[in-house]
What does this fold into?
Amino acid sequence: PYIPGQLHLLRREDDHRIPFGELRAVSLIALLRMGVHTTHRRRFYKSFVAMPLFEDMAPWNIVFVAGKLAYIDQDTQDKTFDDAVPRAYQTMSALMNYIRTVQDFGKCRGKARGGNQYGIPFISDCVASDFRGPCLSSTQPVPCGDRTCRTTFVECLGALIEQEVTSKHSTPRQGLVTLSNSAPALHLSLGTQSH
It folds into this structure.
C-alpha cells in the first residue's frame, strides 16, 4: 500500500521490495539526462569520484540531495569496497592464471550459466554444469555442479573435489616421487584407493 512520503521500488528479478523511505532528492541520471550545464556536470563528477565505492553505483542509485551526491541503494548501502579495489588487478591476475592451470589439467568445462548476471570475467569459468541456479546474489553468483551457489569458480572446484572424494569414500594412496638424482624423495598422494 502507498504511504505518502514513503518510496519503494520492486526489484525486477525477484520482486523484492526495496525501501527508500522519504526521498527529497533528484537522481543523478535524471540530472544528466536533463542536460545540466557543463559547470554543474563537472561538479557532480568531482563529487561522484570522491564518494566511497559501493556495489551498485549506477546513476539511478546516486541522488543529488542537500547540495551533494549521495548513494541510496538500500540493499548495498552498508558495505563499501574502497579497501578491496587496490587488489583488483592482482585478484583478476590470480584468477586468470588459476584458470590457465585448470585448463592445462584438462578440467576446465567452460563458464557456468545461471549466475554472474553481469558477465564479470574470471568468476564463473571452468565450472559449467547442468545446474543453472539461478544464483542472483552478488555474494554467491556461481552455479556449481554440486547444485549450490558459490562465491567463485575456485570455491566451486574445491567443493566438487570434496564431493568426489566423499562420494567415493576413498583414502589417498601414498607414492614416492624422486625429483632428481640430487633432490630428496617427495611423498605424494598419487590417486585414490577405494575401501
About this structure: The longest strand covers residues 185-194. The helical segments are 28-33, 38-50, 88-104, 153-168. The chain has a mean pLDDT of 84.
